[in-house]
Design a protein that fits this description.
Blueprint: H1 2-14, H2 20-31, H3 36-43, H4 52-85, H5 103-117, E1 121-122, E2 128-130, H6 131-134, E3 154-155, E4 165-167, H7 173-181, E5 186-195, E6 207-217, H8 222-237, E7 243-250, E8 253-262, E9 279-288, H9 290-295, E10 304-311, H10 312-320, H11 333-336
Parallel strand pairs: 1-5
Antiparallel strand pairs: 2-4, 3-4, 5-6, 6-10, 7-8, 8-9, 9-10
The structure holds phenylalanine.
Amino acid sequence: MLSNLAEIEQEINSFPVTGPDELENFRLKFISRNGLLTKLFEELKNVSREEKPAVGKKLNEVKKLAEGKYNSLKEQFDDTTSAKETIDLTLPAAEFSIGREHLISQTLAEMVKIFREIGFKVTDGPELEEEFYNFDALNTPAHHPARDMQDTFYVQSKVDKDKKYVLRTHTSPVQIRTMLANKPPLRIISPGKVFRNETVTFKNYFMFHQLEGLYVDKNVSMQDLKGVLAYFFKKFYGEKTKTRFIPSFFPFTEPSGQIDISCFICGGKGCKTCKETGWLEVGGCGMVDPNVFKSVNIDPEEFTGYAFGIGMERITMMKYGIKDIRTFYQNDVRFLDQF
Ligand code: PHE
């Protein structure tokens, strides 16, 4: 029995335990009620009287050894399991996002900076606008076919029954407000939201942003208009950018133009983005129509002026290769965080 115990002692020492499952096997094999040691204690009664003290002593030692190994390992494993459930202060902290400026706000800030540097002042006007400023004063009377160019959200006021309100369809009403409140010379820009009752697609959204420009002084010419826009787009897209003007129509400018810039993807050679034309449309412009001057009491014989409106989502989509205008307004941080 003594040699048998020595063997078991060895077995206990070398029994591999690397996890809680093996530890349980260890317990079952040696210490449990049906384990090896319990059986040996039962067999003790069969040992001769002479041998009994030595065997009993050894058996107790072996039992202590097994229990000692079991307890210390159990403590160790319990420690690691409980550690999993508490906070490990040595781990790096979880990242959190402080957010960032919306891409359109970034474009707005950039545009304002460029125009400010060349003497334009920033003004603004209401988004809920009187029909008078949005249309009539801009040489677009009721039933003028040009009103159909912009699908309008009309708003009924319960308080002010005489006035008709719209969600402004462009930033041009700010021209009127500025000229009524100030005497020329005037050199302003006015960025902001505009609204059109359009079917939402990848190209169109019911709300977007424009930046309006207006310069009124003596002897303002078409050359000044072209110069300032060419300057702006070079600053915004890079020195190689070309600007061209093609005839267009707006009731509040005469002559009127569409502003195109050379495609910044292909440099004007023609590609998918510019539909092989080499050019991309970015806004409208023209010389302030004498009728507009009359509606704000500025003498068209004394003053001339230019105005322009640039689509901010458009120029941002082009700059960053964004294909769908809706992504600006879905508030998906995975999109917004990229810029
Ligand atoms: N307001 C016009 C539009 O929304 C753009 C424009 C602005 C055209 C100023 C001429 C002068 O389409």
